[in-house]
UniProtKB/TrEMBL annotation:
Gene3D superfamilies: 3.30.70.100. GO terms for molecular function: metal ion binding. InterPro entries: HMA_dom (IPR006121), HMA_dom_sf (IPR036163). Residues 27-91 form the HMA domain. This is HMA domain-containing protein.
Length: 156
């Protein structure tokens, strides 16, 4: 017969994954692009996400069509919840401030639908990144005529 003391000792030696302990998700802030047409859409999106387990705050910006979720949640869970509860298609926030991109008005970076002051995040896209990044030759020519360069050409 197995003694109770031996059984408890064996259970204590098992790793946490066999006992059923779950690893906590890390706290993060996620941003999504969601089309918001009216106050009703804004309310539906906010109510759908506030009732979600692990969400601590939801911010909806209807002018930028941006939804920011803070909490211990994962992005696919939020997208699925918005699709099911609010009937809205959501995608990760694709824009960055235009100061981050060296050539913000290059093809592929500039987007007419982007909020003011933002352009598409093309630095991570291998197809469009060469169009946006400045080459060393371009850098030399632009700094040669720059007002910030004290040794610049005074022809202009």
């Amino acid at each position: 017969m197995i003694r109770l003391d031996d059984l408890i000792a064996d259970l204590c030696e098992l790793p946490a994954r066999f006992i059923g302990k779950k690893k906590r998700k890390e706290f993060q802030e996620l941003a999504f692009l969601v089309r918001i047409d009216c106050e009703g859409c804004e309310r539906r999106v906010k109510n759908a996400l506030e009732g979600m387990k692990g969400v601590s705050s939801v911010e909806v910006d209807p002018k930028e069509n941006k939804v920011t979720v803070s909490g211990r949640v994962e992005a696919p869970e939020v997208v699925k919840r918005l699709r099911r509860r609010a009937g809205k298609k959501a995608e990760p926030w694709p824009f960055v401030p235009y100061e981050v991109v060296p050539h913000p008005y290059a093809p592929g970076a500039y987007d007419k639908k982007a909020p003011p002051g933002y352009v598409r995040n093309v630095l991570d896209d291998p197809d469009k990144a060469p169009l946006v990044r400045a080459s060393s030759m371009e850098e030399r020519y632009t700094t040669a005529f720059s007002d910030d360069n004290p040794n610049s050409c005074a022809v202009m």
